[in-house]
Amino acid sequence: MQNNKQIQLSEFYRKVYNSEPKKIEKITQAGSPRFYCRFYSEEQSILGVYSDNVIETETFLYYSEVFTKLNLNTPKVYAVSDDKTCYFIKDFGDDLLLNLLLQSQKENNTISQQIIDYYKKSLTALVKMQVLAKEHIDFTKAYFIQKFDAQSILFDLNYFKYYFLNSSEIVYNEKKLQDDFEKLANDLDSGGTKLFMFRDFQSRNILVKNNEVYFIDYQGGRLGAPEYDLVSLLYQARAGLPENLKLELKDFYFSELSKHIDLDKEEFDDRFYKYAYLRVLQTFGAYGLRGLIEKKQHFVDSIPFALENLKTLMTLHPLSDDFVELKRVLQELILSKKHEHKVFDEFTVQVFSFSYKKGLPIDISGNGGGFIFDCRGIHNPGRYAEYKDKTGKDKEVIEFFKTKSDIDVFIENAKTTVNSTVENYIERGFNSLMISFGCTGGRHRSVYCAEAMAKYLKEKYKVNVILRHREQE
Length: 473
Known about the structure:
Layout: H1 4-17, E1 23-27, E2 35-40, E3 45-50, H2 54-69, E4 77-80, E5 86-90, H3 97-108, H4 113-136, H5 150-163, H6 174-190, E6 195-197, E7 206-209, E8 212-215, E9 222-224, H7 226-234, H8 243-258, H9 265-293, H10 297-316, H11 324-335, E10 348-355, E11 371-374, H12 395-404, H13 407-428, E12 432-439, H14 445-461, E13 464-469
Parallel strand pairs: 10-12, 10-13, 11-12
Antiparallel strand pairs: 1-2, 2-3, 3-5, 4-5, 6-9, 7-8
């Protein structure tokens, strides 16, 4: 069923191209308020974007226009509606650098040279963007904040304090901590080169297509420190880059930027690691707001990764003794067990659907995972054209399963298998269990089974159930 945003994008497509799309595919964006659809014609696919935030859209469109003229690695805008709520951009596919990285880590237990090369290509393209955009962007058209200065840095530090630190049950001296925040903000603002700052430069915003890298979601760009973007990429919590690779990529970036700007290596490294602390703390703030307060599971899942990031940073690159209270607070934070793993307030079953092609779901509870059921032996509706764009939640697919498969027998057997464990965990006072259903694409069979299992557990045991269709997220 199409929602209103998809209907508006479809109507705009017909207006622009004077034809019906061959196929429409909804794209789910984790954490983004924007709505995305992929429109297929005989010749190509394009991305349709709907957003009510016209001011943000205007910044994105302006930046995109400048970047296209500069031949940067960003999508070209094809058409914009009169009210600027709908627009079409070039489609670079779905191969996020983050997903390619995680796949390489899982399959090879290491990061392949190809992935490292993609990171280096990204850094070379980033330097080009930072330098050229600084000369051609009118920063008065930035999205609310034109410059990443001391005030903006304090916003990020207080974001961490109010949305994460205050929920961590760590006692601190507010005045001393604020003094450290202000000292860090002033230190960073007073030195270094200021270029175009992407603001959210991470592997989730980098797409790989035909062995080239492309950037998306740069509407938060402003005038600021180039080191911040480098930190955002290398210290992305989910990526978990090893320290030796971080150092290699940091030095590679320094070499690339030095081709354009005269830099001092010692001063650059000092700013880099201070920005690393800032970025990690800002990330905690986001996880606190989106995860702990708004209860969005994806952000809660990321907290243990961010804590490991902070622990490594403090071990290898400790804060100077100029920041006494901040340093003490962060030491207590990494020693605290409160956020080490997700601890549910009540017994909670996490039910996943997933694609085997993209690896098993990650268990962040610390229990090593739970039940995994392989659905690939069930008759697959994905083989048929009329079901390819649908999921296991659509009535047409459900009817297919009811009439052309034995999937309900499979589910009944799965229920019997998990029953005794659920009852045992409840009796012993455990607080989490993970049940996953996998198929080839993570779209039809696994989704149907996960939906059925989640419904069954809620009704039979009255337990808290978190249902996640990973490949749809």
